[in-house]
Specification:
By secondary structure, this protein is α/β, with parallel strands linked by helices. The chain is built from twelve helices and seven strands. The strands form two sheets. Strands 2-1-3-6-7 form a five-stranded parallel beta sheet. Strands 4-5 form a two-stranded antiparallel ribbon. The radius of gyration is 19 Å and the shape is globular. Bound molecules: iron/sulfur cluster. The site of iron/sulfur cluster has 14 residues, from α10.
Length: about 280
């Protein structure tokens, strides 16, 4: 069962959750994405996304989630750049296309828009494997010449990567809450991921690991071993090389549903097998 007390791990107490500090302004820009990260964002359980939006963060702009749209939304975004200079967080979802031909927002190139927003941001958070690594838009022949966020953001801007396809809802909220309550990004690893959520592999916290240790494996998705919940390593599970907190935070997750980890939080996961999950090991 998931057991990780992530709120405690980011030093957020009950008292802090009950305080009414000014909310952290967030601008969320979508590049080449599928909206899956926003879908994940709206599904946090504790605190819920609703509680987070009402009490801790102020989602000032999102093409998908803002009530306003068009000129009204764009004008509000510009006003936030000025009013909260150096105080707002820039959330980026999706890979950054190499050419303006592939994505414009309100008549401006998404690359230009991100650079403008990043200039005066307190921090930039890349949500999802597409903004963190290039992800699916950059897979294969990469027809849009997509790059990740670090390829375009100036080095002096603090950046955190929160990969996953999509990332875990509580990991999205947790990274934002750390900024809200502590005024800075959580401690990052060498790849700029919050250590508190990406410090260990899926395998090390997997509920099937006792079977792995006993060398009890499913050989196919419908054999006796699969029915008994044995380890999925021989079916190509990428849990041993995927750094993420699915097995310690999420109630419903791939391995519990009986499917192998596809390593969606790792760079190039799609080209390394993606969703086929059929690379059997001997
Ligand atoms: Fe490791 Fe995957 Fe087996 Fe879980 S199912 S113990 S992550 S190899």
């Amino acid at each position: 069962m998931p057991h990780y007390n992530w709120l405690e791990a980011i030093n957020v107490t009950e008292d802090m959750l009950n305080k009414t500090d000014p909310r952290l302004p967030v601008i969320w820009i979508s590049a080449l994405d599928c909206t899956g990260c926003k879908e994940a964002f709206i599904r946090s359980s504790e605190p819920t996304t609703l509680e987070t939006i009402l009490n801790f963060i102020s989602l000032e702009y999102s093409e998908l989630l803002s009530v306003a749209s068009g000129v009204q939304a764009e004008e509000h975004k510009e006003a936030i750049y000025e009013e909260y200079k150096g105080k707002y967080v820039l959330a980026i979802e999706g890979g950054i296309p190499g050419s303006d031909d592939f994505l414009m927002i309100a008549g401006k190139s998404v690359r230009e828009e991100i650079l403008t927003a990043a200039q005066n941001a307190k921090a930039v958070i890349a949500f999802g494997s597409c903004s963190a690594w290039g992800g699916i838009p950059a897979a294969g022949v990469n027809p849009t010449q997509t790059v990740d966020i670090r390829a375009i953001i100036p080095e002096n801007v603090p950046v955190a990567l929160v990969p996953g396809c999509p990332p875990i809802p509580e990991v999205i909220i947790g990274t934002l809450l750390h900024l809200h309550f502590h005024g800075e990004l959580p401690e990052l690893d060498k790849k700029l991921r919050p250590k508190v959520f990406y410090g260990t592999t899926v395998h090390m916290t997997c509920h099937r690991k006792p079977y792995f240790d006993q060398k009890l494996f499913a050989e196919s998705y419908d054999d006796e071993g699969a029915r008994k919940g044995y380890c999925l390593f021989k079916l190509g599970c990428k849990g041993p090389t995927a750094f993420n907190a699915c097995e310690s935070i999420m109630e419903e997750r791939c391995i519990r549903a009986g499917f192998t980890c596809i390593g969606c939080s790792e760079k190039g996961f799609w080209d390394k097998g993606g969703f086929c999950g059929k690379k059997k090991r001997a």
